[in-house]
Design brief:
With about 475 residues, this protein is of the alpha+beta class. The chain folds into two domains: about 240 residues, 2-Layer Sandwich (Chloramphenicol Acetyltransferase), CATH 3.30.559.10; about 220 residues, Chloramphenicol acetyltransferase-like domain (Chloramphenicol Acetyltransferase), CATH 3.30.559. The protein contains 13 helices and 18 strands. The strands form three sheets. The chain has a seven-stranded mixed beta sheet with strand order 7-12-18-17-15-13-14, with helices on both faces. Strands 1-6-10-11-3-16 form a six-stranded mixed beta sheet, with helices on one face. A hairpin with a 7-residue loop joins strand 4 and strand 5. The longest helix is centred in the first third of the chain and has 20 residues. The chain is globular. The two termini are about 25 Å apart. The relative contact order is 0.16.
Length: about 475
């Protein structure tokens, strides 16, 4: 692993708002699909682009268009420039946008030499360096109300090499689909010739719907989940606005792994040769997502318990493990919501398996069955058990027994293009704090899936050995 010594200096900080007098002051209530995100720390994502320019040229020739197109885009995605307003308990948090609200845009320069190539690799790299590339959210208090910004952006220039666009996002304002719509709209406006020469919105900007009445709540989940949220705020947790550079990840290393269609097919065939013997005629759901998640779940398990013994299998708390993930709601609810809806429209999935099953020779098979069954249940009843979403995920988050998966291979994140080509690498920094794994479509392998992990060096070495050896030791 190459020695890491990334250093940056801040060049400029500026506030970017929607165009003047285009958005009125607005208050948006949180739906029952937003509320479960309140306890979560921010999502922190990095997009690296090959753009061999000097810092001076970037500031003079590129940045003005980026700011202008961002402003035009925020006219339609204005909640991202607003704040999450949290009142004293037990009142209801809400999203607020005032006429002078804005997104903090930080421009920085990497001053430590040739670090861009190292940062965009798949090999092990020091996790702490990536935290220098994501911005912090702002927080203020007034009259007992806490106001937290929901999005901040940092663009770091690696002179004559490339740039990194870093985003810190509170998911309470937008799910991955909504944020992806925002990014694609900004990128289209930026790359459009009209966006830099006109003060009117570019034709490439797609309007977003913020109509919260589109979300139906016949079972009163909003009240139930809000009560769950306030009950769980009594549990100590990490600062939701400014994750700290804790001892946990001072010596942590990040790496990216890829599961391609060939490997997926091999795993699927391996599962099918054993499934009838274990589960009879049960039909397993073996999508690329299920296969990939099952495989890396078992690799993750064996990384954390390499010397596991069966002496705890009678203790259900010790022998039961969960795999958490997010399920999109667009095609899973019994009513339609437009694809332009801006907010959260996802559910929470939690798969369960015993440790002795996951660690045994048929671990991937048990993992695939557990994940597939959870997806089947979500397909038929996305909101089944929704009243326990917050308490169940609080049990998983930060626990060494359980793991969560962030991201989706359906987002086409590598299709993002601001006019200088698609990203060369995407990194999900927030997994360092949450002990999660990240997932997105592969840039280099058609139909493949990238998995991002962050472990201490010895564990990363073991995970790599398990991953590379495939179904041998797993």
């Amino acid at each position: 692993m190459a020695d890491s010594a990334t250093k940056i200096r801040v060049v400029e900080r500026s506030a970017v708002s929607p165009p003047p007098r285009t958005v009125a002051a607005t208050t948006l209530p949180l739906t029952f699909l937003d509320i479960p995100w309140l306890p979560f720390s921010p999502d922190q994502t990095l997009f690296f682009f090959n753009l061999p320019t000097s810092t001076h040229n970037f500031m003079q020739a590129i940045l003005p268009n980026l700011k202008h197109s961002l402003s035009l885009t925020l006219r339609h995605f204005f909640p991202l420039a607003g704040s999450l307003a949290t009142p004293p308990r037990p009142a209801v948090p809400r999203l607020e946008y005032a006429a002078d609200d804005s997104i903090l845009l930080t421009i920085a320069e990497a001053v430590s030499g040739d670090r861009f190539k190292n940062s965009t690799g798949y090999h092990p790299r020091m996790a702490r360096d990536f935290h220098k590339l994501v911005p912090l959210l702002q927080c203020s208090s007034k009259f007992g109300w806490k106001h937290e910004s929901v999005l901040a952006i940092q663009i770091t220039v690696f002179p004559h090499q490339g740039i990194c666009m870093g985003f810190t996002l509170r998911h309470v304002v937008a799910d991955g689909r909504t944020f992806n719509n925002f990014l694609k709209t900004w990128a289209a406006a930026s790359s459009s010739s009209s966006s830099s020469s006109s003060s009117s919105p570019s034709s490439s900007v797609v309007a977003a719907s913020h109509e919260r009445s589109l979300i139906k709540d016949p079972n009163g989940l909003e009240e139930i989940l809000l009560k769950e949220y306030w009950n769980n705020t009594q549990i100590p947790r990490k600062d939701s606005v400014q994750p700290s550079l804790s001892i946990f990840h001072q010596d942590m290393t990040r790496a990216t792994f890829v599961v391609g269609p060939k490997e997926m097919e091999e795993i699927k065939k391996w599962i099918l040769t054993r499934s009838e013997q274990l589960f009879g005629s049960t039909q397993l759901l073996l999508s690329p997502y299920v296969i990939t998640c099952a495989f890396v779940w078992v690799c993750w398990m064996k990384t954390h318990w390499p010397k596991w013994e069966h002496d705890d299998q009678d203790d259900p708390k010790q022998s039961t493990h969960y795999f958490g993930f997010i399920a999109g709601g667009i095609n899973r609810l019994n009513y339609s919501v437009p694809s332009t809806y801006s907010g959260n429209y996802v559910g929470f999935g939690r798969s369960e398996a015993r440790r002795d099953d996951l660690m045994g020779e048929n671990g991937v098979l048990h993992a695939a069955k557990a994940i597939g069954n959870t997806i089947k249940r979500l397909n038929s009843d996305l909101l089944g058990g929704a009243e326990k979403w917050i308490s169940e995920w609080e049990e998983m988050r930060g626990s060494e027994l359980h793991v969560t998966m962030t991201g989706s291979p359906k987002m086409d994140l590598y299709g993002l293009d601001f006019g200088w080509g698609r990203p060369v690498k995407i990194e999900e920094v927030s997994i360092d704090e949450t002990r999660s794994m990240s997932l997105c479509e592969s840039r280099e392998v058609a139909g493949g899936i990238e998995i991002g992990v962050c472990f201490a060096k010895p564990k990363l070495k073991l995970f790599r050995a398990l991953f590379d050896n495939g179904l041998g030791p797993v």
